[in-house]
Automatic annotation (TrEMBL):
Signal sequence coordinates: none
Protein name, entry field: Caratenoid biosynthesis protein
Keyword vocabulary terms for this entry: Membrane, Transmembrane, Transmembrane helix
Record Pfam families: Caroten_synth (PF04240)
Organism name: Rhodococcus rhodnii LMG 5362
Length: 283
């Protein structure tokens, strides 16, 4: 078996373990919940990094980590010190493992875990564009997808006591305790991450998405989009999560629905007739 194939299989196994850990999440509490929370982040980030390495090469994988975990950590340190770019907040001690500069070490890798599936789905949505246009259009789409993901993440983690916002009256209806500046900050930071990956990721950043090769990140995106909506609406206890179920479903749907349309178009595409040339189909 080729090394690339082994890496891709390893990524799928790790991704499956991440989904299993998320299924376990509503069933545990206390220290067990702390451990499962950290495990979900580590497993999702690991699956994303290994898949990126297998399908897009070492350069892309390194840039992915630097752009997401690196930029994400810097933004979190800046955010906890100054309130910029997200608004004033602080992490609650314990629960998420080691802390450096008041930010749990695992937190930056949550950016990696969320970014890569969103990047792949945004690439699929832009797949009919020319490569240069695809690179430009993908950047804001990635930011939209990341904000949609945070509409699930932030309410759930705040409900679990992972971090605390210093204002309780500046957010969306039902989620007033999470300020709107948070989502603006997520959009801006995700834009920066997407630009860094686009510019620094080499051929891996320019490579289009393939539905077979990129099944894992697509599944992780769909699982997060649809599974989180179900979990927040039904399985998790905090009443404000009924609101995040709606907001997150719509937010991630701004990327997910166009992706479904592209999938459907590819599935129902009329097969070429014997008289059609390959070059004509390619155009």
């Amino acid at each position: 078996m080729a090394p690339v194939t082994r890496l891709a299989m390893a990524a799928s196994i790790v991704g499956g373990a991440a989904i299993a850990a998320q299924i376990l999440y509503p069933l545990v509490s206390g220290r067990a919940l702390d451990a499962v929370t950290v495990a979900v982040v580590v497993l999702l980030a690991s699956a994303s990094i290994v898949h990126a390495l297998a399908t897009r090469g070492l350069r892309f994988a390194v840039v992915l980590v630097v752009a997401t975990a690196g930029v994400g950590y810097a933004s979190e340190v800046l955010g906890t010190i100054t309130g910029i770019p997200y608004g004033a907040y602080h992490y609650v001690p314990d629960g998420l493992g080691p802390v450096v500069a008041d930010v749990p070490v695992v937190v930056p890798f949550a950016w990696t875990a969320g970014f890569y599936p969103v990047w792949i789905v945004a690439t699929i949505v832009c797949s009919r564009l020319r490569p240069r246009m695809r690179a430009v259009a993908r950047v804001p789409l990635v930011a939209v997808g990341m904000v949609g993901w945070d509409l699930y993440l932030d309410p759930q983690m705040v409900a679990d006591g992972r971090w605390v916002w210093h204002r309780a009256d500046a957010g969306l209806p039902g989620l007033e305790h999470i300020p709107l500046t948070n989502y603006a900050g997520w959009f801006a930071v995700a834009i920066l991450m997407a630009i860094v990956v686009t510019v620094g990721g080499g051929d891996g950043a320019r490579r289009g998405a393939d539905l077979a090769r990129d099944a894992l990140p697509v599944v992780l995106f769909a699982w997060t989009w649809l599974g989180s909506a179900l979990a927040h609406a039904v399985f998790l206890d905090a009443p404000e999560l009924r609101w995040s179920a709606m907001y997150g479903f719509v937010g991630m749907g701004l990327l997910g629905v166009p992706a479904v349309v592209v999938f459907a178009a590819r599935t129902h595409r009329t097969p070429p007739t014997a008289g059609q040339s390959g070059s004509r189909l390619a155009r």
